[in-house]
């Protein structure tokens, strides 16, 4: 098994195209064709994690946070980033990161927080725009169902919680094949009128190659007519943060105590308790203060995230409760997500979850 085989299973769930512009997700150290002897999954790559990988015989580390965010100009070992990268290279250990791309997908970091808290009716808090494409093609009636199924199997036609979505209109197409053609219907050199179905469906842009390839393979024509349009619509399945509802109203203080236990928080920093009971909960793994306005607009009772600065707490303005549970605490279960993705594809492979607590923050 090679590095590219392992990371492809992750990128099928969390494509690199979903990472934020400032991010550095992907293969940071190592070669795609490197043979993998074992995998170590962690939140942060630090020197002790490299040592753990060596001890466990793992030569691929899958991390949530990229060890390199900005370009390294020197490798002198003067800081932990340089030392960690140097140690990985010396020991032929590859480092791969899935960061904001795994934050942005269903089944990712924020949805895992929702599930741990017990939220229902979950929706993406800040959906991405301009991610969707529309495919239009024209198929003879007797092949329409085959082409539709191929498109759906390739990932097209999903809208929210619905799949196999398409719009179909029957009409008549015309074409005339040249001397070097071998038309599926009609005769070359003669104008042909054919009853066809116009099929329209949407897909996320990262699936373009897969969707078009599936359509071409299933379509009977030698020359397939199709159009692809870029859409301004938000993709409701992709974006940062999530919002959902508790099964029933819950006492606010009891809720805070419950999430403190679930996430093993040293403390929770929170704003004024302006509601005795809550039901609608917004969440974001890691640093989520940039989504405060989204949480307020969505009428959340409480916003659970990490890394709020002092003055940002004032921005709640008693419109909701901010509950800062900590960066590490909110993202620690990302390791379980990676483990589930990889072991589903490779059930008998040596996959380890790091035993190192990489949280740089301590509580007294």
UniProtKB/TrEMBL annotation:
Pfam families, per the entry: DUF34_NIF3
Binding positions for a divalent metal cation 2 per the UniProt entry: 64
Family from the record: Belongs to the GTP cyclohydrolase I type 2/NIF3 family.
Record-linked Gene3D superfamilies: 3.30.70.120, NIF3 (NGG1p interacting factor 3)-like
Protein name: GTP cyclohydrolase 1 type 2 homolog
Keywords attached to this entry: Metal-binding
GO CC field: cytoplasm
SUPFAM superfamilies: NIF3 (NGG1p interacting factor 3)-like
Top-level lineage group: Bacteria
InterPro entries: DUF34/NIF3, DUF34/NIF3_bac, DUF34/NIF3_sf, N-reg_PII/ATP_PRibTrfase_C
Record's subunit section: Homohexamer.
Binding site for a divalent metal cation 1: 65, 103, 327, 331
Organism, as annotated: Marinifilum breve
GO molecular function, one term: metal ion binding
Entry annotated with the keyword Flavoprotein: no
């Amino acid at each position: 098994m090679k590095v590219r085989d392992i990371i492809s299973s992750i990128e099928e769930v969390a494509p690199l195209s979903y990472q934020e512009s400032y991010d550095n997700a992907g293969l940071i150290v190592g070669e795609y064709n490197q043979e993998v002897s074992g995998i170590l999954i962690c939140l942060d790559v630090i020197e002790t994690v490299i040592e753990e990988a060596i001890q466990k015989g793992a030569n691929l580390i899958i991390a949530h946070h990229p060890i390199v965010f900005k370009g390294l100009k020197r490798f002198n070992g003067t800081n932990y980033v340089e030392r960690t990268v140097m140690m990985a290279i010396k020991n032929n250990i590859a480092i791969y990161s899935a960061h904001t791309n795994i934050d942005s997908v269903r089944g990712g970091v924020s949805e895992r927080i929702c599930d741990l808290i017990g939220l229902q009716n979950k929706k993406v808090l800040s959906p991405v725009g301009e991610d969707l494409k529309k495919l239009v093609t024209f198929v003879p009636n007797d092949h329409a169902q085959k082409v539709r199924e191929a498109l759906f199997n390739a990932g097209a036609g999903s809208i929210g919680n619905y799949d196999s979505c398409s719009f179909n209109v029957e009409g008549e197409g015309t074409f005339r094949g040249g001397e070097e053609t071998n038309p599926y219907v009609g005769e070359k050199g003669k104008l042909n009128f054919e009853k066809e179905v116009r099929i329209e469906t949407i897909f996320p842009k990262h699936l373009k190659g897969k969707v078009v390839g599936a359509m071409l393979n299933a379509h009977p024509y030698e020359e397939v007519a199709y159009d692809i349009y870029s859409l301004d619509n938000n993709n409701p399945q992709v974006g940062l943060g999530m919002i959902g509802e508790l099964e029933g109203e819950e006492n606010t203080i009891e809720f805070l105590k419950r999430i403190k236990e679930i996430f093993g928080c040293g403390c929770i920093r929170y704003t004024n308790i302006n509601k005795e009971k809550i039901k609608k909960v917004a969440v974001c793994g890691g640093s989520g203060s940039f989504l405060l306005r989204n949480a307020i607009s969505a009428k959340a009772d409480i916003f659970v995230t990490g890394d709020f600065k002092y003055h940002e707490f004032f921005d709640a303005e008693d419109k909701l409760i901010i509950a800062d549970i900590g960066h590490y605490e909110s993202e620690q279960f990302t390791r379980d997500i990676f483990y589930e993705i990889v072991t589903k594809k490779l059930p008998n492979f040596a996959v380890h979850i790091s035993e190192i607590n990489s949280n740089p923050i301590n509580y007294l």
